[in-house]
Amino acid sequence: MFRNNYDNDAITFSPQGRIFQIEYASEAVKQGSVTVGLCSKTHVVLVALKRNAEDLSSYQKKIINIDTHLGLSLAGLASDARVLSNFMKRQALASKMTYGRPIPLERIVSQIGDRAQTNTQNYSNRPYGVGLLVGGVDGTGPHLFEFQPSGMTQEMVACAIGARSQMARTYLERNLDAFAGCGREELVTHGLKALKESLNQDKELTVENTSVGVVGLSDGGEGKKGKLEAFRLYDGEEVGPLLEKALGAEAGKTEREAEGEAPGEQMDTS
Question: Does the pLDDT at position 211 exceed 50?
């Protein structure tokens, strides 16, 4: 990426048909810490890796609750995500006040997509340097959407964005067929395992750097629609049991494999 005659604004095309400021905004998403989203027939799970700018600072918030049925995770510029999330909260509140019902997922995602695309048509604006995974439940069931700085939105079964997200996407593609039938706990486990795949070898998921958001429908029985389980954000110490259940099982599997190779040799699990 370098400066040229076609990147002074977000409305000028290069001779190759590219808008460089949108590409620069997409690069900001790729530099953000990774976040993963998964959707089943009953639940949507968002998991995110948090960063701190320095040892003396707190970890940056990565998952935002928009409404009882809706939340998002971000990769890229947190300040841009704050602007978009505040806009989404206003739209969700307006839907309840005007129509007396929660706003449909597709509509609110389309609205932020239109807002982002408008920035590519005005000389004085710039694209939002953030990518979002928007997950929630509406009248048609659970949904997961990806938002890109260009204004493009698309519904996903599973998705990962941010730095080193390709490793997480590989895990998601490998286990794609299993997600539809997963319950709440299984989906969280898959999300944390996918997030772990994106880490450097010298890093681990901890209660300080991991956030989990879950929303879905409870089991309403055969032929009955389940009751909404409001969006819940797990942060800090609340993430501990989720990590222990998801990654502890994986560690136990590795231990059993090692014992099979070397019978009689006891491993230290402390």
Answer: yes
